[in-house]
Amino acid sequence: MHDVKPTVGDTSWFTHDRFGLFIHWGLYALPARHEWVQFHERTPAEEYEARYFGRFDPDLYDPDMWARAAAAAGMKYFVVTTKHHEGFCLWDTKLTGYTALNTPCGRDLISPMVESFRNHHMRVGFYHSLIDWHHPSYPIQSIHPLRDHPDRETLNESRDLSTYRDYLHGQVREILTKFGRVDVLFLDFSYAEKGRNQWESERLVQMIRSLQPGIVLNDRLDLNDVDGGWDTRTPEQFMPRRWVEVNGQKVVWETCQTFSGSWGYHREESTWKSVDQLIRMLIEVVSKGGNLLLNVGPTGRGEFDERALSRLQGIGEWMRRHGRSIYGCTQAPDEFAAPQDCRLTYNPKTNRMYVHVFAWPFRHLHLDGFGDRVAYAQLLNDASEIPMSTSAPHESEYGAAGQNTLTLDLPVVRPNVTVPVIELFMR
Ligand code: GLC
Predict the structure, then answer these.
(1) DSSP string, 93-126
(2) What are the pLDDT digits (tens) for 77-131?
(3) Distance 238 CA to ligand 1 centre (A)
(4) CA torsion sign, 79 to 417 to 328 to 290?
(5) Alpha-carbon gap, residue 176 to 113, rounded angstroms
(6) Surface-to-core class of residue 109, CB atoms within 10 Å of its CB (0-12 exposed, 13-18 middle, 19+ buried)
(7) What pTM, to 2 d.p., does this model score?
(8) Which of 6, 41, 336, 407 satisfies CB 3.0 to 4.6 Å to 392 for a cystine?
(9) How much distance in Å is there from the Cα of 35 to the middle of ligand 1?
(10) Is 22's C-beta closer than 6 angstroms to any atom of ligand 1?
(11) Domains and CATH numbers, the chain
């Protein structure tokens, strides 16, 4: 129907499941003022390490609780930062001592997380930073805490990119071999000074695909024009206007979004999105054929804070009754246009269309072009029938008839759910 560009990785489950949890967790949970704090405050690695590494002690960490909260929200996969730009590693890597195991935490945080999420039937993904502000061989350039250091050039003399590259490739090999099947890999990111040549992206992709043939790989290795160099596009904190295409062809895509702006735990951010906004965001994304990866930044004690939990719970309440309009769904065929204030999703397997009503109209919803295409209509939240007609008497009487219009006869009182959905059984 919509010919989406085929992928090398197995994206069939991915485009079915639609909704995942992003987790950004690292030492930056302690300063609690953005995961880029080391960069923003120009903190040298030794100083950053001295302040936070010896104090990282997530004593309340309970990955089963995390997985339960995510599963209850309706999420079907998770993607956790094995290492963010700060360079701190959450798993038992043999390639550096800068790991959770050598902090007061004293353990590998990734294995129990993977196990817990699998127990809750969620697929496993890793985010891994290409950038590294701790590794002694990572050259100092524009995106680095020491970018304005007066001795930058002298310092760079001892920083050999190929040593760092071996480390990067070695760590990617570790995370793809130590935890069984990995479903998603999210590498982050390339910029003017660091791209495919510096990372040796093509060699890296070959290794990734050979270690985990089904893996769904994102698009930040600077290989956008290389066939097989990526599976998904990743619009970040951004809502595409219609869908996502490359060279005129629709592609698999996933937007990643935060609750409040930063990815790591941020104590004082006050720009939290509401449950209502987040649910509309998820609907909007699926109506454009995409996935939503929604982020939580756990605290330094190892918990999801209450603002995150209450939102996950609110989303879950809606998803429990309306998941059918999300899972297995995609954008409606081009011949169907959404009526005013509505978003359409469509499940090609069941041949059902879902009308998400963002603003509840008074009594009638007119669906142009649907007149001879719908066999039955009901509210999704309670499976109550919605009477419908194709003659639209009021419309013709007052001279505003549409084309092949189906008129739904809605209850005057809006159903008491965050976003009401009408399920149409198509002919
Ligand atoms: C970015 C940021 C970041 C975050 C991420 C998520 O490029 O550097 O902090 O991890 O994207 O997509």
Answers:
(1) -SS-S-BGGGSTT-S-SHHHHHHHHHHTT-EEEE
(2) 999 999 999 999 999 999 999 999 999 999 999 999 999 999 999 999 999 999 9
(3) 13
(4) negative
(5) 15
(6) buried
(7) 0.97
(8) 407
(9) 9
(10) no
(11) 12-325 (3.20.20.80), 342-426 (2.60.40.1180)
